[in-house]
# Entry
Amino acid sequence: QVQLVESGGGLVQTGGSLRLSCAASRRIFSRSVMGWYRQAPGKQRELVAVISTDGSTNYADSVKGRFTVSRDNAGNTVELQMDSLKPEDTAVYYCNAAGRVALNTYTYWGQGTQVTVSS
# Structure
């Protein structure tokens, strides 16, 4: 059973920082592109940041320069450091693992963690 377990959400004031962490099973983590997505009330889920197995990263324009994604391959964790937070960053943040085994693609989601930025 694949599990992605997020932690680190919470309430912070504008300009503050939070660090999210996602722990994954070793079997999936080592072969997966790991990502963070978010979904605000009434909006679609959107990509925040992804990091490939080789460490290359990609960010949404709205978070570039403020958020940093990293992965610890030994610990099977992916983290999202969020700085200079804005009220519009308020959302439920989801960890994602995606990849391919042979011809079959897969994607797994964590349960989500709430991030609330007060103005």
